[in-house]
Design goal:
Blueprint lengths: L1 H19 L4 E5 L2 E9 L13 E9 L2 E4 L3 E11 L14 E16 L2 E10 L39 H5 L28 E10 L2 E11 L2 E2 L5 H4 E12 L2 E11 L19 E13 L2 E12 L4 E3 L2 E12 L4 E12 L2 E3 L4 E2 L6 E13 L2 E12 L9 E10 L3 E5 L1
Antiparallel strand pairs: 1-4, 1-23, 2-3, 2-22, 3-5, 4-5, 5-6, 6-7, 7-8, 8-9, 9-10, 9-11, 11-12, 12-13, 13-14, 14-16, 15-18, 16-17, 17-20, 18-19, 20-21, 21-22
Length: 412
């Protein structure tokens, strides 16, 4: 995925080079966020009962940015991390190191009076929802992420379920459908990825109104290589209205094919992956006044398969609250849920919900040791319908350091 993002970015830079000759400003910068994390949770023992229930890991976020004159620019967000760092990593105690390009694009910006426009091309964060841009540990007041951005659903885009009963036998984190596709069991898909998609986007804001429109190769639930854009091209759109300073409401949506090419030969005669899309619709709100702030999202997703009259759907949401107790100390909390909807297959077999109801509650405190160093600690309660005990609760700690000083500027 990193190679693909770099290839897209390089292609976009080439397109922008003729314009650079007319500009006189050139700058390069690379802010960095370094994080060390530790967690204690019995999640680490679910797959391996002999594993130790505590682990430590690191994360580095690199943000190389190039300004090519007054309009053209390049930007990337590269993540290097060990596991288990995130709370969702803790369901597997295996220790690995990953490098991912969360974003890598070239952009063109225009500003006139109160109106601005930005065009981007490359690897982009999904335009769906409000949380995807808060992937920096210094920007996220808590330690975990909302459920719709991290939960492996009991749905796979590279396998087909035979019907309702097949769907009911699956679990969060492990899916093995019986009607064809990739061999063996594997994790399901996440409703909206935090790891970016290849595509292009236009953003416009004027006064209190902002909007964005994105075309990508693949769904936020299943990104595809840019070479498959002819089949998997789809749209995501969003926008918002700032009622007054500190109070904004927004909506977003997406729709398009998400099933993998491997299942295309298994679809009904005359049908293609475009006949079975994934779709999402969401609303979000952000509010801040004085020492207090709040945000939240409510979302609904649907994943179409053959063999179903009522398609699998997911409803998810969260509310996050934060208060600044002193200039350096804050506390924050988030409550969220994920609910699987009713399904009915073509034979008439139905179920009121195809997977257990999940709820999470997280409470954290943060202390700015210096203006660039943040210490966070928190506890998360996670409950799944029918579950007892505290096996999925997590106690976490993070130490975050921001480095802003890496930069160079040149004039011609």
């Amino acid at each position: 995925m990193l190679k693909e993002a770099l290839r897209l970015g390089a292609f976009s830079v080439i397109l922008g080079v003729p314009s650079y000759a007319q500009d006189t400003e050139f700058s390069v910068s690379m802010p960095v966020t370094l994080s060390a994390g530790a967690l204690y949770s019995e999640r680490l023992q679910l797959a391996d009962p002999n594993a130790y229930p505590a682990a430590a890991a690191f994360r580095a976020m690199l943000y190389p940015t190039v300004q090519l004159g007054s309009h053209w620019f390049g930007y990337a967000a590269v993540q290097i991390r060990s596991t288990p760092y995130f709370y969702y990593d803790a369901f597997d105690s295996e220790k690995e190191i990953y490098t991912d390009a969360l974003q890598a694009y070239v952009g063109y910006s225009l500003h006139k009076a109160r109106t601005s426009m930005v065009i981007k091309a490359g690897k982009l964060t999904s335009a769906f929802g409000a949380f995807p841009l808060h992937y920096d540990d210094a920007d996220n007041a808590l330690l975990d992420q909302p459920l719709s951005y991290i939960t492996d659903l009991p749905i796979r885009p590279d396998q087909l379920p035979c019907g309702t009963n097949d769907l009911l036998w699956q679990w969060y984190g492990y899916v093995n459908f019986g009607c064809g596709g990739a061999a063996g069991g594997a994790s399901g898909t996440v409703p909206v990825t935090l790891y970016g998609l290849p595509g292009a986007q236009i953003e416009v804001s004027t006064g209190p109104i902002d909007g964005r429109f994105q075309l990508t190769s693949g769904s936020p639930a299943n990104p595809q290589n840019v070479s498959l854009a002819g089949t998997y091209l789809q749209w995501t759109a969003g926008g918002g209205y700032t009622i007054h300073q500190g109070f904004r409401v927004g909506v977003s949506g997406f729709r398009g094919p998400y099933l993998d090419p491997i299942v295309a030969p298994l679809l009904p005669t005359g049908k293609t992956v475009r006949n079975f899309p994934a779709s999402g619709l969401g609303a979000d709100v952000q509010w801040a006044r004085g020492r207090f702030s709040a945000s939240g999202e409510l979302q609904r997703f649907q994943f179409d398969f053959p063999n179903f009259r009522t398609q699998p759907s997911i409803t998810a949401g969260y509310v996050e609250l934060k208060t600044q107790l002193t200039p350096r100390l804050f506390v924050a909390g988030r409550g969220g849920f994920l609910y699987a909807g009713k399904v009915e297959d073509n034979t008439g077999v139905s179920a009121d919900q195809f997977a257990p109801y999940i709820r999470t509650y997280e409470l954290a405190a943060g202390f700015w040791v210096t203006r660039n160093q943040l210490l966070k600690g928190g506890y998360e309660w996670m409950r799944s319908e029918g579950q007892t005990g505290r096996q999925t609760d997590v106690l976490g700690l993070q130490y975050v350091v921001q480095i802003h000083s890496l930069g160079w500027a040149f004039n011609r």
